[in-house]
Design brief:
Length: about 450
């Protein structure tokens, strides 16, 4: 299918061509016609599938028709859980709408009020917002949602995870009931279904690749680590690898992220930290530095796990495993963007057994175990899921079953010093390659839900 077949406005088609996209991704092929036909929509798709264009393009298309309501308020509102994601959506709108006259603005927490008040005092087509700050403006009657035609919830599951349910409900209640509502989510459980029931009318449903989403182009590896010192040595091995072009190193806490970044900086690496204690302009600056190549290693908390889209991230390194299994999928999705290849490395120690079990249950597979010669672990990590079905294709070591005798394990440094997996990146959407089958089955995130997570 071509973009032209989607009957998008010529100005949008021209912008898509300028982006270098040759064909719509599966989520775009399904979502765009339904949204353009005016249906409410629940789309289960994770980041990296091209979901942003799947809702931005129909929104832009609709802007070509005259507004149905009067006033200065936005015609389209996109709610997102994080500021990073909001900034990326804003960039996408700029890119896809560059041959149209579109007035968009981002209303985000952590940004000065003055500029936002100025933006909101003028007519605006699209507002991209995080729920907390938008509620603030809504409560103070600084934004009018009376002429809203389209409400888009991006990463709706994440917004609920972060405790924004009430805010989202309140925002939706302030919008006209005849609006169109599109809900994008990576996971679907009963809480999500209830939200959809409250906010959407007779929604169409789309799930990319059945109930499964694939991360086929990301090679996942597990390295067992005895302790912190061992993790540091493993990290040194990876960052000395010239095929590592850019990497995100995930740490458990903001303090650890700062400390590790500081340590790597002292060793002479181009490194920066990214976490929720930094103000928004510092976070933006860091991401821009990484995009421009001034930063090769980004040490981050889960604030960077979702939405962050930087081209050329060859490796994601889970220095600490995530506490929530679904975050694992989001973290590793920072590499292997738009069909390119990527490597996701996870370090796990004995203390991580429960987290590892949860992740493996969530993704429905045992992570292939790798061992680097000279950096073999000496302690045994037993895992319920260690009844491996045997080594995955391409995995250099034996299954976890055999882990009890590290010295006897066959190790192979080939793939660790491996090929430049992240090197070749094209804009063409390539369907998953069957050589590394990694299938992620979402089983609902409800069990892990907590209120307002601080990352
Ligand atoms: P998203 O899932 O929206 O975060 O998009 C992931 C990446 O896919 C972004 O870098 C987009 O620029 C890229 N992308 C989106 N649509 C297409 C397409 N049709 N062809 C190629 N790349 C795309």
């Amino acid at each position: 299918m071509s973009f032209a077949e989607l009957q998008l406005h010529p100005a949008i088609l021209k912008a898509i061509e300028a982006c270098g996209y040759t064909e719509p991704t599966p989520i775009q092929q399904q979502a765009i016609p339904m949204a353009m036909a005016g249906h409410d929509l629940i789309a289960t798709a994770q980041t990296g599938t091209g979901k942003t264009a799947a809702f931005v393009l129909p929104a832009l298309q609709r802007l070509n028709a005259p507004a149905t309501g009067t006033g200065r308020g936005p015609r389209m509102l996109i709610l997102t859980p994080t500021r990073e994601l909001a900034n990326q959506i804003t960039d996408s709108i700029r890119n896809y709408g560059k041959f149209m006259r579109v007035k968009s603005c981002a209303i985000l927490g952590g940004m000065p009020y003055r500029e936002q008040l100025r933006l909101l005092s003028q007519p605006v087509d699209i507002v991209i917002a995080t729920p907390g700050r938008l509620i603030d403006h809504l409560n103070n009657r600084r934004i009018d949602l009376g002429r809203l035609e389209m409400l888009i919830l991006d990463e709706a599951d994440r917004m609920l995870d972060m405790g924004f349910t009430e805010d989202v409900d309140k925002i939706a209640a302030a919008a006209p009931s005849n609006r169109q509502t599109l809900m994008f989510t990576a996971t679907m459980d009963s809480t999500m279904a209830k939200l959809a029931q409250r906010l959407l009318k007779n929604p169409e449903r789309i799930t990319v690749a059945g109930k499964k989403t694939t991360l086929d182009n990301i090679e996942q590896r597990l390295h067992l680590a005895d302790d912190l010192g061992h993790k540091n040595r493993l990290l040194q091995h990876f960052i000395a690898d010239i095929t590592l072009t850019k990497a995100i190193i995930f740490s458990a806490t903001k303090r650890d992220a700062d400390a590790l970044a500081q340590e790597l900086h002292q060793q002479g690496h181009k490194v920066a930290a990214l976490h929720g204690d930094m103000n928004q302009s510092a976070r933006n600056r860091t991401i821009t530095d990484m995009r421009r190549g001034k930063v090769r290693l980004l040490v981050a908390t889960d604030v960077a796990a979702r939405g962050l889209d930087v081209t050329g991230i060859s490796h994601v390194i889970n220095f600490d495993l995530p506490r929530f299994a679904e975050d694992y999928v989001h973290r590793i999705g920072r590499t292997g963007r738009a069909g390119a290849a990527g490597i996701a490395v996870s370090f796990a120690s004995n203390n991580d057994k429960n987290y590892l079990d949860k992740i493996e249950r969530f993704i429905g597979q045992t992570l292939p175990l790798h061992v680097i010669p000279g950096l073999e672990p000496t302690k045994v990590l037993r895992s319920k899921t260690s009844t491996s079905k045997g080594p995955k294709r391409g995995a250099p070591s034996a299954g976890r079953k055999n882990y009890a005798a590290p010295s006897a394990r066959r190790s192979d440094s080939r793939s660790d010093s491996g090929q430049a997996n992240g090197a070749e990146r094209t804009k063409k959407w390539s369907s998953p390659k069957p050589s590394r089958p990694v299938t992620v089955e979402y089983r609902g995130a409800g069990a892990n839900r907590q209120s307002r997570r601080v990352i």
